[in-house]
Design goal:
The complex is a heterodimer.
Chain A lengths: L5 H29 L14 H28 L2 H33 L7 H22 L3 H28 L19 H41 L1
Helix pairs in contact in A: 1-6, 2-3, 2-5, 2-6, 3-4, 3-6, 4-5
Chain B lengths: L8 H31 L2
Classes of the chains: A mainly alpha, B mainly alpha.
């Protein structure tokens, strides 16, 4: 890895940020397990909330930024925006996988079932599959301009689902709990629980930044390698 | 007096293992791909 190569520098920065965020995740575990009270009705399983909610936040943030980056790409035709959208989509799928596994693990002891086809859960699963399709589409197209244009349209359509997912607990009858922080009134959580949730959300957001930076640098390096291959 | 909270710590342990497995696994896959591209393999 040479430090003069800009993609190598970006990759190294992303790696450092991601490792720092993972160290922060260890702090979140200590806070959640040792210094946050057990919820009286849900028991210890409620602490899954400190991973599930931040991963959901990062997944929805990532997919929203894919849509914004894609719309800007269609307008400005700047390949950096397409590269960012692709990086954010892949990282968003990883966070969505965390959300979609920790959710059912929480639901089993609390609801008595791993899964239910209510609006929030079904729309979230649909969003996950949509962005898996986005990544498959990108992998199947070899012309960079065509790949960027087609995937930008899918990215924008995916982003349009995000507000429906957030509001689905108000729009439909659903088992899923209503928002307790991102809502018009004050957060309805005891201060110790709110502190742990906010620390965890900050750590997950830092991990999102680190992973997107690393994925962006990797895309740059791959493009440079392809161009060098074409020129040879 | 409140009843005792349910004993369901195993679910928390499962979630607290699954989440880093996915995230660290993804980070390692990115790192491996980056190393491969930068070394020109």
């Amino acid at each position: 890895m040479t430090t003069t190569d800009p993609s190598a520098r970006i990759i190294a920065r992303g790696l450092r940020t991601s490792v720092a965020a993972l160290a922060g995740l260890a702090v979140v575990y200590v806070l959640a397990i040792g210094f946050t009270p057990v919820e009286a009705r849900q028991g210890v399983a409620q602490k899954i909330f400190y991973l599930h909610v931040p991963s959901a936040w990062c997944a929805l943030l990532a997919f929203s930024l894919v849509g914004i980056g894609s719309a800007l790409y269609l307008w400005l035709q700047d390949p950096r925006l397409d590269r960012f959208a692709a990086a954010s989509a892949e990282v968003g799928v990883a966070f969505a996988a965390v959300m979609l596994t920790t959710g059912p693990i929480w639901a089993k002891p609390i609801w008595g079932t791993w899964w239910t086809w209510d609006a929030r859960l079904t729309l979230t699963l649909f969003l996950f599959f949509l962005f898996v399709g986005y990544l498959a589409l990108r992998a199947s197209l070899h012309d960079p301009a065509e790949r960027a244009r087609f995937s930008a349209v899918v990215g924008i359509l995916g982003m349009l689902l995000v507000p429906f997912i957030h509001l689905s607990v108000y729009l439909f009858r659903t088992l899923h709990p209503q928002p307790i922080v991102l809502k018009p009134s004050a957060p309805s959580l005891p201060p110790e629980m709110l502190r742990t949730l906010l620390v965890s959300t900050a750590v997950f957001t830092l991990l999102y930044i680190g992973l997107v930076t690393l994925r962006y640098g990797l895309a740059m390096a791959e493009e440079a390698r392809e161009e060098a291959g074409d020129a040879a | 007096m409140l009843p005792e909270p349910p004993a369901n710590g195993g679910y928390m342990v499962a979630a607290y293992i699954v989440a880093p497995v996915i995230l660290v696994g993804y980070l390692l896959s990115l790192w491996r791909r980056a190393r491969k591209v930068l070394q020109g393999d």
